[in-house]
Specification:
Number of strands: 0
Oligomer: single chain
Distance between the termini: 112 Å
Shape: flat
Largest sheet: none
Length: 213
């Protein structure tokens, strides 16, 4: 009896598998379709993440136009800067000095901004003005005599600026002393280290940007 039962159960299991196999296949089809859709969705997402069509190997037309537009802009400004440089050189020494002066001011501004701490500078309102003041003092000291020689071609302008050229070094020394006294008068408790660091950074930037040029 035990053997018969075992055989019967084995037969039932085999028949159940045969009967249930279409059911399993019916249940698998949506899963296969779902996995295919998911895979397709992943493929589409990977293509979409690029934004440049790497998945298909085709470069969008908009990116090509953007590259050509950037190339045209850079080429145009390159030739404009070259033409402007030669124009300034052709105008004479005074225009060349003014061009160098403008470049120094822009570079000095960028170097000073590297050490700026806006949170602390809000409590020290004169820090930016002091940086500009020392720049003006050094520019006047370095370019005063050269500017005097360059302005000899323009007598009317030289006549108005003659007092500044006659006592050039004394005025430069006096301006620096005024700036130093101004710095000492703006020292505040709790900011000594920051203010001393800013003062040193200002003089280092002046030496690297203005003096060496």
């Amino acid at each position: 009896m035990g053997r018969v039962t075992k055989k019967g159960s084995t037969a039932n299991m085999q028949s159940g598998e045969k009967i249930g196999s279409p059911t399993k296949l019916r249940h698998r089809k949506p899963t296969d379709n779902g996995s295919t859709a998911a895979a397709k969705g992943d493929y589409d997402e990977n293509d979409g993440d690029d934004g440049q069509g790497k998945g298909t190997g085709i470069v969008p037309q908009e990116d090509t136009k953007k590259k050509w537009r950037n190339w045209r802009q850079r080429t145009t400004f390159t030739f404009l800067m070259i033409a402007g440089f030669f124009t300034v050189i052709a105008l004479g020494p005074l225009s060349t000095m003014l061009m160098v002066l403008c470049l120094q001011v822009l570079i000095y501004r960028e170097v000073i901004s590297l050490s700026s701490v806006p949170k602390k500078e809000r409590d020290l309102p004169w820090s930016r003005a002091m940086n500009a003041y020392f720049l003006i003092c050094l520019e006047y000291y370095l370019y005063g005599e050269n500017m005097h020689r360059a302005l000899k071609r323009h007598p009317w302008l030289e006549a108005h600026l003659q007092p500044f050229f006659a006592h050039h070094r004394f005025i430069s020394f006096s301006l620096y002393l005024i700036g130093f006294v101004w710095f000492v008068s703006t020292l505040r408790k709790g900011y000594y280290r920051f203010q001393m660091g800013q003062f040193a950074w200002t003089h280092m930037a002046l030496g690297l940007v203005v003096v060496q040029s």
